[in-house]
């Protein structure tokens, strides 16, 4: 028997291609020498009425092929005249608003698309954009949660109070429980806006093939099938007329799950109208001002607890800044409101949020998607309780844990997928014990005292979280065993660097009994797998992994049936090892999968020895049909996986930091992670996901923020001003340990891992800095200058 690959640290098959510069991204797509290039005129104002757009200076410029405004799109079709889709409606989203492909009458954030220019090259397109004259009537800008709540001005005239949605969920009677509790606390916490910064920005290429009456499109997206559906609808095409291919993607992190972006409609629209391929690649400033942000929330917490720190009542109110439009609905604040509970079980819980319009860039999920804000609120509350009671912070957390024998645990809330917030499995006490050992929790007080004697300030923080992963509704897979014996695997979700080609091949090799090197995986190509949902919410391994496993199982069952007939043995006596089907204990009686594949599609003609054996005159008993009545020709399997609800991974992080007494510089001394994502397909890739997430978490906690002025101008829309951590700011070693509590909800017992590293970072660093400095940390991110100002304000010394 071959060694099982599930759980093995198999080297990524993608790496050699990427490391040798052979990656193929949207901007690398070659669609002929006649490709045209596009540029977008974007609003310089956060809020203004459009009085006139004058494109006359552009129309006669040599090399400019087209200029489009809203009126041109509206003249094409009613569908193009309508706003972009509200992708995830929700009953609580009473005032959902989405932008137009090109602005109609009004702009609501700096960077909103107004006109689209297509020219011979990008330089000419950019110059032509500069020739367009727009007359504006400036309107007051609403920037930030406080201004939105004050509602002295409105982002949209028909949205009272700037409130897009208000949602409340309750377990028990939290206000009464808090009022009657032995102890009570209140906290006010804020997290500022940040954003993901993928190496590759948004990009789209399209080509119209008039002879085939067909559109072919390449786009850097997290949902090729979603883009396909939107393009077909807006351009008035049948779904079968549109192919969307996602090539290599240089990072997604959530920003590319929104669809369609205006350019994903404008590029194919122009390609079809002009009869030539069209390409758009955004520049870095465009990504800052016209893609998507996240994180910005203001939170108020009231908590009642007993002498052991056990939660008796928890009341949370928060205000979410969703920007100028709501294309992705309420996913982010709903996740905050439910995932805030983490591994704990408050006896009474009330949460209410308002999702508010501001004249800033839209919000869509960014790695963690509302969970960092929720974890920050809950873990800061736990720290405050421990400090109030004079107890160890781990002791208070342990007193509130859901216990291993309480799974499945139903919180009585509705999660982001519209289903019950029911945790499927876990062991939180075991996670905590592992973390304490990994970070040296018991030894830290002595270390802190020793450092203090040297005039050095160090602090220790921890945070616990639970992450809903693998949300539905479904994913599918197709597994085809070729007549060469090679195995082709297709799944519809896309890949942005997660190592899908490796982990999915591991699953197929294990199930089919073929060599790992003989498996090829394709993702994000609607020609190969037209039905899919997308890559987000740590769902790829759970959803597509399960579907691929089931599809491979079907292909294997068919292969064994055909081989059993060919070998004239019982199917139960067969096994597949390294691509050869043989009788158990009798390897001499065998047939390779390549020949089985030929036998699965009996031919009239013979091209080689294998097909000669499979012609209709050589299939054996002439009275039997060459293919079973209930089977299609070909050696393949196709299946879909749909979960009953999300599966819940969990983890705990801890960090030791040092804060410089003079400069307030924050240095990470040690960082530790304990994580439970059920059975791991490839532990090395899981650890890579954690490392990357921790790096993003550090950035969000200590460096990155979107700095708007009161007029809605983004002041740091470049890498000269927007700070990201370099490798010098990330710990050389991140200590990682694992716990595997398998999920009962899918055939592989797995849970997602993609966002594990980033979720608790803000809470961890707030706690560690507070421990080092001796005063409360209630706002994140926290830069050295912020910390220095806090010291000045408080006049505090540890």
Automatic annotation (TrEMBL):
This is Xanthine dehydrogenase family protein. SMART domains: Ald_Xan_dh_C. InterPro entries: Ald_Oxase/Xan_DH_a/b, Ald_Oxase/Xan_DH_a/b_sf, Ald_Oxase/xanthine_DH-like, AldOxase/xan_DH_MoCoBD1, AldOxase/xan_DH_MoCoBD2, AldOxase/xan_DH_Mopterin-bd_sf. The keyword Oxidoreductase applies. The keyword Oxidoreductase applies. Residues 20-140 form the Aldehyde oxidase/xanthine dehydrogenase a/b hammerhead domain. Keywords: Molybdenum, Oxidoreductase. The lineage of its organism: Bacteria, Bacillati, Actinomycetota, Actinomycetes, Pseudonocardiales. It comes from the Bacteria.
């Amino acid at each position: 028997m071959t060694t099982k690959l599930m759980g093995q640290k198999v080297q990524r098959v993608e790496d050699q291609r990427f490391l040798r510069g052979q990656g193929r991204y949207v901007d690398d797509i070659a669609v002929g020498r006649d490709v045209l290039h596009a540029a977008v005129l974007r609003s310089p104002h956060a809020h203004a009425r459009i009085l006139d757009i004058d494109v006359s200076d552009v129309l006669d410029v040599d090399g400019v092929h087209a200029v489009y405004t809203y009126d041109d799109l509206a003249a094409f079709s009613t569908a193009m005249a309508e706003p972009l889709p509200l992708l995830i409606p929700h009953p609580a989203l009473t005032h959902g608003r989405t932008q137009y492909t090109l602005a109609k009458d009004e702009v609501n954030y700096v960077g909103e698309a107004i006109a689209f220019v297509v020219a011979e090259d990008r330089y000419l397109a950019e110059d032509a954009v500069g020739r367009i004259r727009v007359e504006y009537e400036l309107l007051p800008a609403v920037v930030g949660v406080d201004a939105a709540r004050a509602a002295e001005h409105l982002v949209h005239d028909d949205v009272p109070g700037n409130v897009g949605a208000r949602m409340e969920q309750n377990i028990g009677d939290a206000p009464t429980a808090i009022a009657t509790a032995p102890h009570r606390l209140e906290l006010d916490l804020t997290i500022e806006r940040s954003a993901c910064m993928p190496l590759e920005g948004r990009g789209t290429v399209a080509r119209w093939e008039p002879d085939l009456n067909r559109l072919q499109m390449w786009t850097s997206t997290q949902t090729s099938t979603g883009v396909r559906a939107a393009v077909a609808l807006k351009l008035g095409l049948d779904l079968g007329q549109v192919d969307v291919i996602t090539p290599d993607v240089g990072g997604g992190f959530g920003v590319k799950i929104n669809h369609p972006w205006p350019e994903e409609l404008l590029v194919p629209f122009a390609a079809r109208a002009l009869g030539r391929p069209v390409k758009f690649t955004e520049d870095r400033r465009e990504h800052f001002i016209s893609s998507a942000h996240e994180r910005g929330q203001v939170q108020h917490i009231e908590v009642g607890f007993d002498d052991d720190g056990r939660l008796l009542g928890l009341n949370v109110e928060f205000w979410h800044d969703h920007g100028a439009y709501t294309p992705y609905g309420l996913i982010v604040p709903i996740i905050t409101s439910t995932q805030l509970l983490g591994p704990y079980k408050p006896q009474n819980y009330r949460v209410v949020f308002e999702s508010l319009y501001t004249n800033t860039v839209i919000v869509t999920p960014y790695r963690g998607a509302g969970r960092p804000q929720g974890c920050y609120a809950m873990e800061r509350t736990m720290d405050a309780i421990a400090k109030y009671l004079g107890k160890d912070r781990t002791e208070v957390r342990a007193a509130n844990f859901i216990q291993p024998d309480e799974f499945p645990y139903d919180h009585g809330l509705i999660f982001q997928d519209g289903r019950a917030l029911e945790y499927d499995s876990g062991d939180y006490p075991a996670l905590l014990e592992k973390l304490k050992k990994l970070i040296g929790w018991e030894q830290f007080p002595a270390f802190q005292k020793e450092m203090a004697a040297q005039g050095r300030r160090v602090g220790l923080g921890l945070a616990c979280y639970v992450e809903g992963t693998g949300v539905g509704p479904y994913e599918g897979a197709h597994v085809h065993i070729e007549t060469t014996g090679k195995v082709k695997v297709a799944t519809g979700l896309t890949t942005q660097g997660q190592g899908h080609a490796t982990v999915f091949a591991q699953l197929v090799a294990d199930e089919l009994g073929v060599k790992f090197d003989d498996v090829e995986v394709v993702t994000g190509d609607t020609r190969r797998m037209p039905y899919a949902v997308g890559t987000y919410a740590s769902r790829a391994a759970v959803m597509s992994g399960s579907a691929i496993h089931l599809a491979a199982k079907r292909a294997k069952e068919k292969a064994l049936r055909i081989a059993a007939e060919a070998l004239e043995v019982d199917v139960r006596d067969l096994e597949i090892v390294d691509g050869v089907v043989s009788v158990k204990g009798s390897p001499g009686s065998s047939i390779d999968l390549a020949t089985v594949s030929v036998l699965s599609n009996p031919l009239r003609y013979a091209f080689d020895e294998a097909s000669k054996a499979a012609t209709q005159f050589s299939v054996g008993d002439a009275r039997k049909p060459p293919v079973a009545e209930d089977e299609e020709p070909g050696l393949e399997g196709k299946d879909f996986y749909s979960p009953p609800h999300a599966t819940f991974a969990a983890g705990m992080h801890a960090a030791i930091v040092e804060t410089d007494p003079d400069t307030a510089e924050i240095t990470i001394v040690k960082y530790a992670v304990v994580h439970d994502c059920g059975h791991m397909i490839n532990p090395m890739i899981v650890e890579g996901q954690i490392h990357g997430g921790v790096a993003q978490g550090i950035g969000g906690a200590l460096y990155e923020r979107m700095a708007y002025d009161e007029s809605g101008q983004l002041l740091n829309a470049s890498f000269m001003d927007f700070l990201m951590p370099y490798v010098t700011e990330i710990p050389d070693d991140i200590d990682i340990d694992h716990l595997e509590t398998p999920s009962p909800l899918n055939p592989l017992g797995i849970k997602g891992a993609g966002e594990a590293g980033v979720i608790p970072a803000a809470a961890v660093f707030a706690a560690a800095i507070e421990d080092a400095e001796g005063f409360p940390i209630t706002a994140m991110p926290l830069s050295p200058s912020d910390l220095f100002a806090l010291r000045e304000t408080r006049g505090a010394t540890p």
